[in-house]
Fold these 2 entries.
Entry 1:
Amino acid sequence: MNTVTQTPTDNNFDISQLTPEQIEQVMKEGKGIVEKKREQAKKAYEHQRDQAVISLLIEARQVMATLADFKEFTHQQMEIQANELKNYGKMNGRSQGGFSIVNTAGDMRVRRRRDTTPQWDERALKAVDLLKEFLMDKVKKRDQKVFEILMGYLEKNKQGDWEYSQAMEFIKHENKFQDERWLEGIRMLKESYSVSLKGFGYEFQFKNKENKWETLNLNFSSL
């Protein structure tokens, strides 16, 4: 007598007619099908993900290369304009390289600005020591609030540098005290400060429908 093997997809499949061994086999086969489909879905997702990452990185590199070329082109063009302005007598004598050019219609503008980094030499360390010594000795007990404010201005940032804005706020209090340590510290702090030119930054602007300047967000700083 011939036996017909039934599968879970058969319309007349009746699990009650199976032996325990057959039920176990069916369950294993079903589990295998589920795992196979899950693995197929995983591979399909990973393939799609990898394709997206690769295509985006290729495009990003091309954009970066184009942006770097455009930055160099901008620099060359603005150098030409700077020289033309000097020859034409329209460059401010006090200008340190920053200027703007506007088209005849007055609705497009390119600006070149100096990007600088504040620097403090070894005299700043001595200056801060003198200033803190004075504040601890003469101000802390007399005016705790002023003491905390001034000491806060002398703190360095997370990178271990003094913030320019903090130092300038501190120097605004120059005439607050007449102690020799205070005056000497302020003098040395001023003398220790300088700026170094990192390069030039550029802004590309146009007037919108409201006749207000809008800036195209092109970031050259990392190039």
Note: The beta strands are 99-102, 108-120, 193-207, 213-216.
Entry 2:
Amino acid sequence: MRKIRDQPPPKLKNPHKTSSLLQGFLGRCLIRDPSQRATAIDLLDHPFLR
């Protein structure tokens, strides 16, 4: 739990192999500050899931 709190969010090993939509979706999920992080409803409306 400390690693999650103290270290930056994980990065994709090969971002060039993933779509920009997936990268954007994951970026919204991995924001540390809960008040800034997307809600489940926001994520369900993300273009990656459409």
Note: The first helix runs from residue 2 to 6.
